[in-house]
Each structure stands twice: as C-alpha cells, then as structure tokens.
Specification:
The complex is a heterotrimer of chains A (about 220), B (about 60) and C (about 190). Chain B is an all-alpha fold. Chain B contains one helix and no strands. Chain B is about 45% helix and about 0% strand. Chain C is mainly α. Classes of the chains: A mainly alpha (about 220), B mainly alpha (about 60), C mainly alpha (about 190).
C-alpha cells in the first residue's frame, strides 16, 4: 500500500504548493477565479502525468549526466502541445491564464517530480505519482481561488472551459456590499497564501504530535 | 513546402539541443576555481529537486 | 523618449515582476535570508536576463520567423536560457574566482526561474521594437533585484522576531511580501 500512502501524502502533507512551496508563481497569479484554477490544475495534471510517464519510459536509455537537459526539452515540447490545444479548444481559458501556460515549463513541480521520482521508478508508479501531485496542486489552487473569489466578488461562478456561454454554477454567497475587493489584488493573494500555508503547517505539527504520542503509548 | 518547414524545425531544434548539451558537458568538466569548492548558494526556498542547488544533490 | 522612460518606471516599480506579476517567487523566498546573497542573486539575474532577452529576440526574428517556425518559440527560448546559464557559469569559473564566489553560485537557480522566460516571452507577445525590448529587459530584473534586496533586509530582522509557530518561515515572509505589495501599489500614481 506504499503507492496509496504516496498518493495521500501528495494531497495534504506533502502538498506541492503549501507543503513544499513548489510552483508558487502560478498559484498566486491564476487564483483570481475558480475557473482559472480548474483550468490550470487540469493543464498541470496533464503535463505532469505525461511527462512522468515519458521520462520514466526512457529513463534507462538517457545517459545520466545529460538527464536534466533531456527532461527540460521533453517538458517544453509537452507544454507547447498543450498550449496549442488550449488555444484551439478553450480560447477563453487561454486569455485568462495568459503567459502562465508556457510558464508551466519552469514550474518547479514538474521538473522536480521528474528528477526525484520518474527517473527512478516504473511507468505506472510515475503516472500515479503525477496524478497525486497534480491533484494536490489542483486542490491547493482551487481552495485558494475559492477563498479569493468568494471574498472579493461574493459570487461563485464556474463556466464550461470549452464553451464560455455555458454557465455551470453561479451562486452569490456574500452580498455585494460586504465583499473585500482587496483579495483580487496581489496583496490578497499573498495574504491568502500565507494563511493557507500556516494552516497546513499547524495541521502538520498537530498530526506529528499525535503520531509521536501514539508511538509513546505503544512503548 | 511542408517538408522544408519540418526539416527546418528539426535542424533548429537539433542544433539548439546540441549546443545546450555541449555547453552543459563542458561546464561540468571545468573545475571550480581554487577556494570555491565548498560554496553553496544559501537558498532553501523550496524543495525543488530539479534545482541543482537543492541539498539532496550532495551525495 | 518619454515612452521609454514610462516603460522603465513601469517595469521597475508599477508592474513589478515579483509583487505584481508574481514571478520569481522561488528565489524570492529562498535567497532572501541574507543581504549578501540577495545582492549576488540580483546582479546575476540582471545579467542573465539582459543577455538572454537579446539573444532570444534575435533568434525569434532572424531564425524562427523567416522559417515560419513561431510555434518553436517556447522550446527555443528555454534551450537558449539554459545554454546561456551554462556558458556564463563556465566563463565565470575560468575568469574570476571572486566573481564566482559572489554571483556564480546563484546561476543554477536561474535556469528554472520564471522571470527570465517571462521576459523573453513578453518581448515577443507585446511586439516590442529593439529600444522597448532593451528598456523592458533591463527594467524588469532591476525591479526584481530591488525588491529582493529590500525583502532581505526585512527578513534579517524577521529571523529574530517573535513569530507564531505556524507562521514561521515562508508564511510570515509572504505576509511581509503582501505589505510590500501594498506599499508598491502606491507607485501606480506616478505615470
């Protein structure tokens, strides 16, 4: 059940965004609306899983000393393909995510997982790890964008990424008079991130203390 | 026309990759200047394994 | 001319790459614990970005556009940036140990740095001509170095402050960044 433990860890304890502080740039920038978060999360999961699988498949034939250049080239190609697909099929997402789709190339999560995991494990394990980390990232950005969007505009609005006009969910959670537009700006982004990271850190210390107490009890 | 464009793409891509790999290998071969062997950039911002500065590379 | 000055001020202060565009957060969080490392990182970034912007601009307009290969921009740029970092590190190793001690160690951190790739991509997507490209590519890393330095001076004090446990380390640094962003947003009235 080691795979499942790994998967669970990637979701909360070793959450790539709030636990390992990877991929912070894109997190802060795109979390203005939940739509962007979902779109970006999906793109990152796709790139992560595909790159993990490809790199794991060729890990035996790549000479060890040039592995980082090879990884970078593979990831850049994948991101370019996904960028072109998004431009073609979800143009609204392309405009709102803007330059952060190409910047997935230098997103620390992808290169980091490729080097730490995919280059040492089999294809299936790497794919699962990619999904786990990708989901951790997606959960993190959705949580952050939920807080930011609801506090700054009061409205939770989710549309179909492939067809702008199709609104899936539109619910006003906070009346317009009580919203805090600060959360739309960079200041709000930093504050939300800090509070969520602190919450995760507090949870981790609490969980560690509980595990320690249990271990002492067993003795 | 299509073939010419695809050929051009492969040549550009191949030459860039070649230049990068050559420079990467040359850089690995050049020794650090004397007195600089144990320098480490003082950075622990993230646990990015791909960053060559990450302490996990010290093996 | 005034347009160029406006662009410079915008890229350094108003549309600051760290506090407004959220790029370069990894070195911002990581290298800012001491003033000396912040200065080293800032200077290294300025050098790499200016040279990388020039080279990628040239490659895009002299090679990719005539051959109708604009879709290769991302791959070409990242390869150029990575090669440039290797070349610079090699060059510094061979010529000046003193320079290596102060800047060279930060060069590997710049390859996967969002700022460099972003500057190269924005130069193309905003269709800057040469003068604008130069001003933007010099202004942006100066903005980065400036914020990094200010942040490191604050963080040196933060280390000995009484911070609640969950907020220790990166979270409190983020809150400081939030306050800095608030301060910098006041510059928006200059232009």
């Amino acid at each position: 059940m080691n795979r499942f433990e790994n998967f669970k860890a990637g979701l909360i304890k070793d959450n790539p965004v709030f636990g390992l502080y990877l991929g912070i740039c894109s997190t802060l920038a795109i979390t203005t609306t939940v739509n962007n978060a979902i779109g970006m999360g999906a793109a990152v999961i796709m790139v992560l899983v595909l790159s993990n699988m490809i790199i794991s498949a060729i890990r035996k034939i790549v000479p060890d000393d040039i592995r980082i250049p090879v990884f970078i080239v593979i990831i850049a190609t994948l991101v370019k393909i996904i960028q072109m697909l998004i431009e073609a099929y979800a143009p609204a997402l392309n405009t709102s995510l803007g330059v952060f789709i190409p910047l997935i190339v230098v997103n620390c999560i992808i290169l980091g997982r490729a080097e730490a995991f995919a280059s040492k494990h089999g294809v299936l394990d790497s794919a699962l790890d990619g999904i786990g980390m990708g989901l951790g990232y997606t959960v993190a950005v959705i949580a952050m964008s939920f807080i930011r969007e609801v506090l700054s505009t009061g409205i939770l609005n989710i549309v179909n990424p492939f067809n702008d006009a199709q609104v899936w969910l539109n619910v006003t959670l906070i009346p317009a008079d009580y919203t805090i537009p600060l959360f739309n700006s960079p200041v709000g982004a930093f504050i939300t991130f800090a509070l969520l990271a602190a919450a995760l850190s507090a949870y981790k210390t609490h969980a560690d203390k509980k595990a320690e107490a249990k271990a002492k009890e067993v003795k | 026309m299509e073939l010419k464009s695809a050929l051009g793409a492969i040549v550009v891509f191949g030459s860039l990759v070649g230049v990068y790999i050559t420079l990467y290998k040359l850089n690995k071969k050049t020794p650090l200047p004397p007195g600089c062997e144990d320098l480490k950039a003082d950075c622990e911002g993230c646990h990015d394994y791909a960053c060559t500065n990450n302490p996990h590379h010290e093996r | 001319m005034s347009e160029l000055i406006t662009l410079f001020v915008t890229s350094v202060l108003i549309n600051n790459v760290v506090l407004n565009q959220f790029l370069g957060m990894c070195p911002f969080m990581g290298v800012s614990k001491k003033r000396s490392s912040a200065i080293g990182m800032g200077l290294a970034v300025i050098f790499v970005i200016v040279v990388a912007a020039l080279i990628t601009y040239a490659i895009y307009y002299w090679i990719l556009v005539p051959l109708n290969l604009q879709y290769m921009d991302l791959i070409a740029f990242i390869l150029v940036i990575a090669s440039l970092v290797q070349l610079t590190e090699m060059f510094i190793k061979k010529t000046s140990p003193a320079l290596y001690k102060s800047l060279g160690v930060y060069l590997p951190l710049i390859t996967t740095n969002c700022v460099v790739l972003n500057v190269c991509l924005v130069n193309i997507s905003n269709s800057y001509d040469f003068a604008h490209m130069l001003v933007y590519s010099i202004g942006t890393p100066i903005g980065f170095a400036l914020v990094l330095y200010i942040f490191s001076t604050i963080r040196e004090r933060l280390d000995i402050a009484n911070v609640p446990n969950p907020l220790k380390g990166n979270p409190i640094a983020m809150i400081v960044a939030a306050i800095m962003a608030m301060a910098f947003s006041g510059f928006a009235g200059i232009v």
